[in-house]
Amino acid sequence: MTTKEHLTLKDNNVHITVKKSNGEIEEFDYSNLFVTAGLDAVANMISGLATVKPFKYMQIGTSSTASTTGMTSLIAEVESTTNSIKLGTTNVSLDTIKYTGTFAISTSYALKEAGLFNNVPTGTTVVMLARITYPVINLGANSTMIINWSVVV
After folding, report:
1. Helix H or strand E encompassing 147
2. pLDDT at 124 over 80
3. Residue 66 CA, distance from chain mean position
4. How far is residue 123's CA from residue 113's CA, in Å, rounded to a whole number?
5. Distance, C-alpha 73 to centroid of its chain
6. Does 29 fall in a domain?
7. Count: domains in the chain
8. Cα–Cα distances in Å, from 70 out to 40, 64, 74, 85?
9. 71 domain residue, yes or no
């Protein structure tokens, strides 16, 4: 008897922590949507048939437009950051990539979207791996948003 294992990316595990300037802390959990261009990039990374930069950047934005698999960018990006990246275990050893993006907010935003990318917004060949939308999170100057985004393979 043969068993087939399929590599899949699971659409889950986005944890957002907000530290407002008044000291108030809020936490939220959401699921993401992997987009077609991101999945194509992962296949190219695994196969070695094309050179694709790793997904080390995160962006946040202000659009509530629903996510679709055909999206290639955020609708209204306002901030970006470089992620810290670690491996962790969910089901089997080292099957989870844990991205952490920290945004030091310097102006007021009504945030509603976030995404994982392989390049800075002004870079060439920017590929989005995944996107989330969420109910508005209003942040003012001197606030911090920390997004912990886990991708389970």
Report:
1. strand 143-152
2. no
3. 15
4. 20
5. 11
6. yes
7. 1
8. 12, 16, 12, 26
9. yes
DSSP 33-89: EE-HHHHHHHHHHHH-SS------EEEEE---PPP-TT--S-SSEEEEEEPEEEEE-
Q: Which two tokens stand for residue 75?
A: 């609708």
111 burial type by CB count under 10 A (0-12 exposed, 13-18 middle, 19+ buried)? buried
pLDDT: is 47 or 61 the higher one? Answer: 61
Residue 115, beta-bridge partner list: 59, 131
Instruction: Give the position of tokens 């389970």.
Output: 152
- Give the residue carrying structure tokens 């949507």: 33
Tell me how long the chain is. 153
Tell me the percentage of the chain whose pLDDT exceeds 90.
65
Q: Residue 89 has which token pair?
A: 């275990």
4 in a structural domain: no
Q: What are phi and psi of 108, to 5 degrees?
A: -85, 135
**What is the domain range of residue 133?**
14-152
- Find residue 102's DSSP bridge partners: 146
Measured CA to CA in angstroms, residue 98 lies from 31, 45, 56, 146 at distances of 14, 18, 11, 13
In a domain, 52, yes or no: yes
